[in-house]
Design goal:
The chain has 188 residues and is mostly beta strands. The chain has no helices and 16 strands.
């Protein structure tokens, strides 16, 4: 049985019949009372974010999660369809189960977390940085670089991002999928 001393960032816990991922955690010690362990939890199967406090040493119920590489195939009325890279099995996930669906492109790889108790997918996570081709952006103005000015650009998935003025249409840029920020230009 796991206790509060086993809590770690990214761990999936079962609380009141729902699954939560540990975003942040810590311990509060006072001179008079017993130590308390707190955690900020993000709902895996719901969109809630909660904070929970336990007495130090209390039992917790972690869920064993297996992570597998899947390839994004297409989107249809059933959701986003992925294929297991080893068994070629296909699954469909809802948009709410994917961390950044606007950055999914056909053939792209994602890591799908699967609850080993129920064999059901929990979530899909994109790589931290992905390269995209700019399909549309306004031309940058010469000499307008005194500040870190940004302009809108549309990438091949249809998402709009902010890029520096020197980036032009047709170029390939790397984007941080967690924040949606421009990282760098990619030389082809």
């Amino acid at each position: 049985m796991a206790t509060t001393s086993d809590i770690s960032r990214g761990m999936i816990l079962k609380l009141d019949g729902s699954l939560y991922s540990v975003v942040e955690f810590g311990e509060n010690k006072t001179a008079r009372a017993a130590a308390k362990v707190w955690a900020k939890l993000k709902g895996v199967d719901n969109s809630r974010t909660i904070e929970k406090t336990w007495n130090s040493g209390e039992n917790i119920f972690p869920v064993r999660v297996e992570k597998k590489a899947y390839q994004f195939l297409y989107k249809d009325e059933s959701g986003f369809n992925f294929m297991d890279n080893e068994t070629f099995e296909q699954i469909a996930l809802g948009e709410d189960m994917i961390d950044a669906p606007q950055f999914l492109k056909e053939g792209g790889e994602v890591i799908v977390s699967i609850n080993t108790e129920t064999e059901q997918p929990i979530s899909a996570e994109l790589p931290e940085k992905i390269a995209f081709k700019i399909t549309y952006t306004e031309p940058g103005l010469r000499g307008d670089t005194a500040t870190r000015a940004l302009k809108n650009a549309t990438i091949e998935t249809g998402a709009t991002i902010q890029v520096p003025l020197f980036v032009n249409e047709g170029e390939v840029v790397r984007i941080n999928t967690k924040t949606g920020d421009y990282v760098e230009r990619v030389k082809e």
